[in-house]
């Protein structure tokens, strides 16, 4: 993809809805394809910034071919121009109450490796057993 101007990056926890001019530097922690009868096959990802803030991200069916070759688990990327929307509890996979969605104008470019960390959010089994953890948030044990 075309290189973009070096506008400042924003941490995932500081992004808010109703703006598309964000630029983030993130590691792709998880990536999977999902098929939904109403919207077709999408790419779903969990991205993480250098502080460990994770956010769920989607690439719509019509944009999958444009972006899939640039997305690889474990790599750091700059991502620019995307939408930020409220994540509903039923589909919320991270603590951040928002979800990102790629648009036609999104850019994905390589970034230096900022950390080899896996950014797991570990909880103990007792918390899970006692129902102290939100079921809609991805966790590790």
Average of the residue pLDDT scores: 85
Query: Approximately what portion of the residues adopt beta-strand conformation?
Result: 35-45%
User: Which homologous superfamily in CATH is the superfamily?
Assistant: Nucleic acid-binding proteins
Number of helices: 2
Structural class by helix and strand composition = mainly beta
CATH class: Mainly Beta
**How many strands, what sense, and barrel or not for the largest sheet?**
5 strands, mixed, barrel
Shape, principal axes of CA atoms: globular
The count of β-strands is 5
- Major sheet: order of its strands? 1-2-3-5-4
Number of domains: 1
Pfam family, one: DUF223
Domain Replication protein A 70 kDa DNA-binding subunit B/D first OB fold: 12-110
Protein name: Replication protein A 70 kDa DNA-binding subunit B/D first OB fold domain-containing protein
Structural notes for this entry:
By secondary structure, the chain is mainly β. The protein contains two helices and five strands; from the N terminus they run βββαββα. The chain has a five-stranded mixed β-barrel with strand order 1-2-3-5-4. The longest helix has 5 residues. The N and C termini lie far apart (38 Å). The mean pLDDT is 85. This is Replication protein A 70 kDa DNA-binding subunit B/D first OB fold domain-containing protein. It comes from Microthlaspi erraticum.
Give the structure's gist in a few sentences:
With 141 residues, the chain is mainly beta. It has helices spanning 64-67, 125-129; strands spanning 23-36, 40-48, 54-59, 76-86, 98-110.
């Amino acid at each position: 993809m075309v290189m973009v101007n070096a506008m400042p990056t924003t941490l995932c926890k500081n992004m808010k809805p109703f703006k598309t001019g964000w630029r983030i530097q993130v590691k792709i922690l998880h990536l999977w394809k999902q098929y939904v009868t109403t919207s077709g096959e999408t790419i779903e990802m969990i991205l993480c910034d250098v502080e460990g803030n994770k956010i769920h991200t989607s690439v719509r069916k019509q944009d999958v071919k444009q972006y899939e070759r640039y997305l690889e688990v474990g790599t750091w990327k700059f991502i620019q121009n995307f939408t930020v929307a409220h994540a509903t509890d039923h589909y919320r996979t991270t603590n951040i109450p928002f979800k990102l969605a790629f648009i036609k104008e999104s850019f994905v470019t390589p970034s230096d490796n900022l950390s080899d960390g896996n950014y797991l959010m570990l909880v103990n089994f007792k918390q899970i057993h006692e129902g102290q953890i939100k079921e809609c948030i991805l966790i590790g044990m």
